[in-house]
Write a structure and sequence with these properties.
It is a single chain. With about 700 residues, this protein is α+β, with helices and mostly antiparallel strands. Helices cover about 20% and strands about 20% of the residues. The strands form eight sheets. The protein has an eight-stranded parallel beta barrel with strand order 14-15-20-21-22-23-24-25. Strands 1, 2, 3, 4, 7 and 8 form a six-stranded antiparallel sheet that branches. Strands 6-5-9-13-12 form a five-stranded antiparallel sheet, with no helix packed on it. It is elongated and about 90 Å long.
């Protein structure tokens, strides 16, 4: 083994130093001291700046001796530091030439892009001292967490049911019932794990949880005067550091342990953790944004720049990271490896992932090095990789994202097709493709149904309740004259815009939500549910609540009682999916009988059995799955029949016959009066008339043949 030399060779104003190790980047505890390593290809000098925690002024500034530079890496070991009480940054000197892409300014203290803990925003929503010379302060992590043999769960993708949530919104509401000091934190989610277990999901997808600045672009609400924040957090300050403001212990610097405790407890309960990561841009914004880290360290390396020195803006937020530069690619890989190894994270969803496939001038690459590297990385080999396969620059790659056999996609075409079919606008042909796991998008290239992350609602857009309560968006509270947020919502208010006391409209809205969820849960692929949809959470028609730290985003837990019928239906449908492997095939249907059961794996029907109406005017479709074609290794499954009547009138549906000795049982019928619209799986009553079923207007029925 190499001997680690712990003897200083240099001194500077009383500090003992020696040349450091270039890898790993960042600040690493070594015998007797701390190794600091930072890259810059254009800087001419670098100075380490040291603070005691929370102190306004540094207690030391140590220039890196030239002999401590190895290539383009400044690396130095400083001995005898109190690393538990330390904050550090850098000053970089070099050319300052806008058109050439250089922004060096030695008067600014820069945050280490590899910082594992970041101070300065320790408690959510506490207004910072704007005169502070160093806002986002790198700290040193030391790992003594006891994982107790925990490891990522490696649930097969097709068996996942994903629950997308915002950490603060999930438990911030006073009705959440968690300890007051835990409201809106990682610890709050931990208290609510029994709820997630009861619902039946086995993966949570957390909106950004690394350090971001909630005060970025903060401003008064023009309607109420309350502060509008960077609430969602899609604007990275530090890729490696969990957000202190999301930890009940953040003011004590314990956010690392609190997040690890949450992950460990979720794993104990069979729930995976997927992180929403944003590598397409940073919080430094455009030419008018703050200098936090990358811009002052090596602007020309880290960002895509025009020939005139301006920032390309494929993210829609001011700048675009130069992800296919080898240095930036290295940071992304190091970051994800860190989360996977140090936090046992099970997967990652990549915001605006199409950007990750652009070259330094913005053109789409045929073989993007970063996407390939992530797909074949040995440490990430079992992690789920999920792409939001579009960007703000107009690149839309749903169905064509460079997958390398590994990448799944948020299927925006599923969302659009099912929404249209739900309101009576879409075609049954398109709906049939989506229900089968979108073989038109994925089967041609050999990609499995689980490539398709199926969702009808997500954080970006209407909630499920708002999808059936509003014809148009109502984003006035955002202060942008209702110009922000998408106009293409494919929503229908069921006859009245917004809340109403009309019982008929409210019953129809609940039925439409159940219709949507029923279709989602019988679709091949991976279903994703938006936090609160299971209890009818509303954003009052706002489809872009990115800036609100209030009831527009917080989950009101009193809805669990108010909309108990929705929660029960969600719970039953998730349990039904989990019970039936024929709903979770790892391959696409072949539309033929390849096991000798007498039935094809999937057959299509309409109001007449065996005779689907595929015309553009059709609003009815049904399909049957043969349980003998369930995925390999699974116990032979039942037959499942799903009938969907999106017509505004009741219709009689003939039902295909079953093999001798089997009968149809009713698992769900959204047209029935609660509580008889769904049943606990395994307790389904037998269908009275085995030859047919009267389907109410705008309803879905799910039968199980056994």
């Amino acid at each position: 083994m190499d001997r680690i030399d712990i003897h200083p060779t240099h001194s500077y104003e009383g500090f003992k130093l020696r040349s450091g190790k270039p890898f790993p980047f960042g600040a690493t505890i070594v015998p007797g001291g701390v190794n600091f390593s930072i890259f810059s290809s254009h800087a001419i000098s670098c100075t380490l700046v040291l603070f005691e925690k929370h102190e306004k002024k540094p207690f030391a500034e140590i220039p890196f001796p030239e002999e401590f530079r190895i290539g383009n890496v400044y690396c130095m070991t400083v001995f005898d530091l109190d690393y538990e009480n330390l904050e550090y940054g850098y000053r970089m000197d070099g050319p300052n030439n806008f058109q050439a892409g250089h922004w060096f300014d030695s008067s600014k203290i820069l945050m280490d892009p590899y910082a594992k803990i970041i101070g300065g925003r320790d408690v959510w929503g506490v207004t910072p001292d704007w005169n502070d010379i160093y806002h986002h302060r790198a700290r040193i992590a030391f790992d003594d967490f006891d994982w107790e043999d925990d490891r990522p769960l490696e649930i097969p993708p097709e068996d996942q049911v994903i629950y997308e949530m915002h950490v603060r919104s999930f438990t911030r509401h006073a009705s959440s019932g968690v300890k007051e000091r835990h409201q809106g934190t990682f610890a709050g989610i931990r208290e609510k794990i029994p709820y997630l277990k009861e619902l039946g999901v086995n993966a949570v997808e957390l909106m950004p949880i690394y350090e971001f600045d909630e005060f970025e672009n903060s401003r008064p609400n023009p309607q109420t005067g309350e502060t509008l924040y960077n609430y969602w957090g899609y604007s990275t300050v530090g890729f490696f550091a969990p957000k202190a403001g999301y930890a009940a212990t953040g003011k004590f610097g314990m956010q690392v342990d609190e997040l690890k405790s949450l992950v460990k407890e979720l794993h104990k309960n069979g729930i995976e953790v997927i992180l929403d990561v944003v590598f397409n841009h940073t919080a430094e914004g455009n030419e008018n944004g703050p200098t936090i880290s990358f811009r002052g360290i090596d602007n020309k390396t880290y960002y895509m720049l025009t020939p005139e020195g301006y920032y390309y803006n494929f993210s829609g937020t001011g700048n675009t990271l130069n992800c296919n530069n080898p240095i930036v690619r290295g940071i992304v890989l190091d970051c994800l490896r860190y989360w996977a190894s140090e936090y046992h994270i099970d997967g990652f969803r990549f915001d605006l992932a199409a950007i990750l496939g652009r070259d330094p001038w913005g053109a789409p690459l045929a073989n993007p090095p970063l996407l390939e590297s992530l797909a074949f990385d040995p440490i990430l080999a079992k992690c789920k990789l999920i792409a939001e396969a579009w960007d703000a620059g107009g690149l839309y790659q749903v169905g064509s994202f460079p997958a390398y056999g590994r990448w799944a996609e948020w299927n925006g075409k599923y969302r659009d097709g099912i929404r249209k079919f739900l309101k009576g606008d879409g075609t049954v042909g398109d709906a049939a493709q989506r229900l089968q796991g979108s073989p038109d998008l994925y089967a041609w290239s050999g990609r499995a149904p689980a490539t398709s992350i199926n969702f009808i609602t997500a954080h970006d857009g209407f909630t499920m309740m708002d999808l059936v309560s509003y014809d148009g968006k109502h984003n006035e509270a955002n202060g942008e004259n209702n110009n922000d947020g998408t106009n293409d919502n494919d929503s229908w208010n069921c006859g009245w815009e917004g809340p109403t006391d009309d019982q008929g409209i409210n019953a129809l809205r609940h039925r439409q939500i159940k219709n949507a969820l029923a279709m989602l849960m019988v679709s091949q692929g991976v279903p994703m549910i938006l936090m609160g949809d299971e209890v009818g959470r509303t954003q009052y028609g706002n489809n872009n609540t990115y800036c609100h730290d209030n009831d527009l985003n917080w989950l009101d837990w009193t809805l669990l009682e108010k909309n108990a019928d929705l929660f029960k239906f969600f719970k039953h449908c998730i349990a039904f999916r989990n019970l039936h492997p024929v709903l979770r095939n790892p391959w696409h249907f072949q539309n033929r009988d390849y096991v000798g059961s007498g039935y094809a794996d999937i057959t299509w029907h309409g109001t007449q059995a065996w005779n689907a109406d595929w015309s553009d005017s059709s609003r009815t479709i049904a399909f049957m799955l043969c349980g003998k074609h369930a995925k390999q290794g699974a116990v032979e499954d039942n037959y499942i029949y799903v009938a969907m009547n999106m017509h505004w009138e009741s219709l009689w549906f003939e039902i295909p016959g079953l093999p001798v000795g089997m009968n149809w049982h009713v698992f769900a019928n959204t047209g029935a009066t609660p509580p008889n619209e769904s049943w606990q799986p395994g307790t389904e009553p037998m269908l009275e008339n085995q030859s047919g079923l009267l389907m109410g207007d705008r309803s879905v029925a799910i039968l199980v043949g056994k």
